[in-house]
Specification:
Blueprint lengths: L8 E4 L9 E10 L7 E3 L1 H5 L3 H6 L3 E3 L7 E4 L4 E4 L5 H5 L6 E8 L4 E10 L12 E7 L7 E3 L13 E7 L4 E7 L5 E7 L10 E10 L6 E11 L7 E2 L3 E7 L7 E4 L2 E2 L9 E5 L4 H4 L2 E3 L4 E4 L10 E10 L4 E11 L7 E7 L2 E3 L7 E8 L9 E5 L5 E7 L2 E6 L10 E10 L6 E11 L7 E2 L3 E7 L7 E4 L2 E2 L10 E4 L3 E2 L2 E2 L4 E3 L5 E4 L10 E9 L7 E11 L20 E5 L28 E9 L7 E11 L4
Parallel strand pairs: 2-8, 9-15, 17-24, 26-32, 34-43, 44-46
Antiparallel strand pairs: 1-2, 3-6, 4-7, 5-6, 7-8, 10-13, 11-14, 12-13, 14-15, 16-19, 18-22, 20-23, 21-22, 23-24, 25-27, 27-30, 28-31, 29-30, 31-32, 33-36, 35-41, 37-42, 38-39, 40-41, 42-43, 45-46
Function: Potential calcium-dependent cell-adhesion protein. May be involved in the establishment and maintenance of specific neuronal connections in the brain.
Organism: Oncorhynchus tshawytscha (Chinook salmon)
Subcellular location: Cell membrane
């Protein structure tokens, strides 16, 4: 390949699209047949990307359903030829011929579109389907008689394609070329000097097809003319162009149309036969013409491969005279292709505090059918906080459209279904599984708004009083609760000298033995704090009630007992009955009247007993003196 044909053309334009998922587009133009490893272009430089970004974004190239002809060198930021590209095998006669790829980056997700136009080089010579062509022409053929020659085919396009023909020698025949609607040329050999069988029974000519490449390439066919007598009328078609339509996937044997040509000669010279004269195998292998002129389908018609066909028909009589016509076949599309969904990139997990419109996945959808059969709409399952947005033709992003809450839903199975508008509609689906990761957005919550607990006095230090419990709706470390005793004081003494709390279990323990007669209750606050960053917490009030034990005997306040003197209670000698002991109020009354026989001095022992378990008691001695009068 010459240096001239190796010249690369770089067409760069970067557009700001309506959505941020597609960040730029670059186009290159390269010739076909470049060697493996050849440089296509500096993609990083042309898109303004840093090499570090390619590495951190795990840059990769997506080529869709086409063969991977190109590759990305992330170390240099360049695109290279991965496999040799044959433009004719890739695109045939279609022009322009282009490869469409995408460069995908992650963290954050970005999409860049790459278009590489494959230009033609002159690597195919014009060729004829047959090496020889035989004509039997009557010597009475009139000047101007036309004979249809086989058209050459050239897989190249443009200037590299077929450009001209030449016919040699030119003693009897001249070459006539007529432009066709499809861009090809009708090739005819025109008689310009009468034939004389007696002088020359056979004429040999060479038809050469030449392309416009550099250097020019050519192909030839040998033409043998056998000079006959008396067939001086050529067949004539009833119309120059026939039209037919056929639905793709039609069965073999389907009828298209019928052509007809007539010959004014009689006998065998007027018998006409038909043939398909297309050089391209795609046509000659697809259609067949019967002896009666009926054209039928013998191959498989696929609208996605070819939308139109031109069948060149030749009518020839037994004298070698001929005429040509053509059948234009339009292929009607049917909805025989479901949309193809390809996931370009996806996230397996996103945090629950992700902002709205966070990109979860990017995918492309392609339907090779036409019109409404190829129009695709994508949707997802209902009642989930996601939506689909189109980023460019055939490319979509799956994004969040409302707040996420891991505590409400920690995982989503997102079914993306893409359907075309054909009748009946065809569709394809892909399911994406997305985990919602936790953030610390829930504080611990105590089981009660406040707590009251009881402990009997004279307890053993270290005794567990009760347990507080708080729960956190978050997950893992964010839900790990620790319990903390908040600083406060009870009667001027730090509460931490009264009780302690287990940070892990929430168990509250007494650090001392309590005395009900000194303190009957006290309260403090406990904080529950999670392990998030930053941590969240909540508080609760705990009230400890000291329960009394019967650890004190009754004390007699009166009469006061002393060792030095005894106090005597005076009772009149004429007291009436009513001396008894009040069980509850401690009153002592007489139960009968005092008489002369009664001792003047009485000593009473009174037992005072409480109701505790076990019961405790105290005794007191009461001296009673009986007197007639009081000092």
């Amino acid at each position: 390949m010459s240096d001239k044909t190796m010249t690369r053309q770089v067409l760069l334009f970067i557009s700001v699209l309506s959505l941020s998922s597609v960040h730029g587009q670059v186009s290159y133009s390269i010739p076909e047949e470049m060697a493996k490893g050849s440089l296509i272009g500096n993609m990083a430089q042309d898109l303004g990307l840093d090499i570090k970004r390619l590495k951190s974004g795990k840059a990769r190239i997506y080529t869709g359903n086409s063969a991977e002809y190109i590759e990305l060198n992330k170390e240099r930021g360049v695109l290279l030829i991965r496999e040799r590209i044959d433009r004719e095998a890739l695109c045939g006669q279609t022009t322009p011929c282009a490869l469409h790829s995408q460069i995908i980056l992650e963290n954050p997700m970005e999409l860049f579109q790459i278009t590489i136009e494959i230009t033609d080089i002159n690597d195919n010579a014009p060729s004829f389907k047959k090496n020889e062509k035989r004509f039997e022409i009557s010597e009475t053929a009139v000047i101007g008689s036309k004979f249809v020659l086989e058209k050459a085919g050239d897989a190249d396009i443009g200037l590299n394609g077929l450009q001209s023909y030449s016919l040699k020698p030119t003693d009897n025949f001249a070459l006539k070329l007529e432009n066709q609607v499809d861009g090809s040329k009708k090739v005819e050999m025109v008689l310009q000097k009468p034939l004389d069988r007696e002088k020359q029974e056979q004429v040999s000519l060479v038809l050469t097809a030449i392309d416009g490449g550099e250097p020019r390439l050519s192909g030839t066919v040998q033409i043998h003319v056998i000079v006959l007598d008396a067939n001086d009328n050529a067949p004539v078609f009833t119309q120059p162009v026939y039209k037919a339509t056929i639905t793709e996937n039609s069965p073999k044997g389907t009828y298209l149309t019928k052509v007809s040509a007539s010959d004014a000669d009689t006998g065998s010279n007027g018998e006409v036969s038909y043939s398909i004269s297309n050089n391209m195998d795609s046509v000659s292998d697809m259609f067949h013409i019967h002896a009666n002129g009926e054209v039928i389908l013998v191959g498989k018609v696929d609208f996605e491969k070819a939308k139109h066909y031109q069948i060149d028909i030749e009518a020839i009589d037994n004298g070698g005279l001929s005429d040509s016509s053509k059948v234009i076949v339009d292929v009607i599309d049917i909805n025989d292709n479901a949309p193809v969904t390809s996931v370009l990139s996806k996230s397996s997990s996103i945090p629950e505090d992700s902002i709205q419109n966070t990109v979860v996945a990017m995918f492309s959808v392609h339907d090779p059918d036409s019109d409404i059969n190829g129009q695709v709409h994508c949707g997802i399952n209902e009642n989930i906080p996601f939506t689909i947005k189109a980023t460019s033709n055939g490319f979509y992003s799956l994004v969040t459209d409302s707040e996420l809450d891991r505590e409400r839903a920690s995982e989503y199975n997102i079914s993306v279904t893409c359907s075309d508008e054909g009748v009946p509609s065809l569709s394809s689906s892909v399911t994406l599984t997305l985990q919602i990761s936790d953030v610390n957005d829930n504080a611990p919550v105590f089981e009660r708004s406040s707590y009251e607990a009881y402990i009997i006095e004279n307890n053993t230090p270290g005794l567990s009083i009760f347990t507080v419990k708080a729960r956190d709706a978050d997950w893992n470390q964010n839900a790990r609760v620790s319990y903390i005793l908040e600083d406060s004081s009870v009667n001027g003494v730090p509460v931490s000298s009264y009780v302690s709390i287990s940070a892990d279990s929430g168990v509250i323990q007494a650090l001392r033995s309590f005395d009900y007669e000194q303190i009957k209750d006290f309260q403090f606050r406990v904080k529950a704090q999670d392990g998030g960053s930053p941590p969240l917490s909540s508080n609760v009030t705990v009230k400890i009630m000291i329960q009394d034990q019967n650890d004190n005997a009754p004390q007699v306040l009166y009469p006061v007992q002393t060792s030095s003197s005894l106090v005597a209670e005076m009772v009149p000698s004429r007291s009436r009955c009513g001396l008894s002991l009040g069980l509850q109020n401690g009153e002592i009354r007489t139960i009968r009247q005092v008489n002369d026989k009664d001792a003047v001095k009485q000593r009473l022992t009174v037992v005072v007993e409480d109701n505790g378990q076990p019961s405790r008691s105290a005794t007191v001695n009461v001296n009673v003196a009986v007197a007639d009068s009081f000092p």
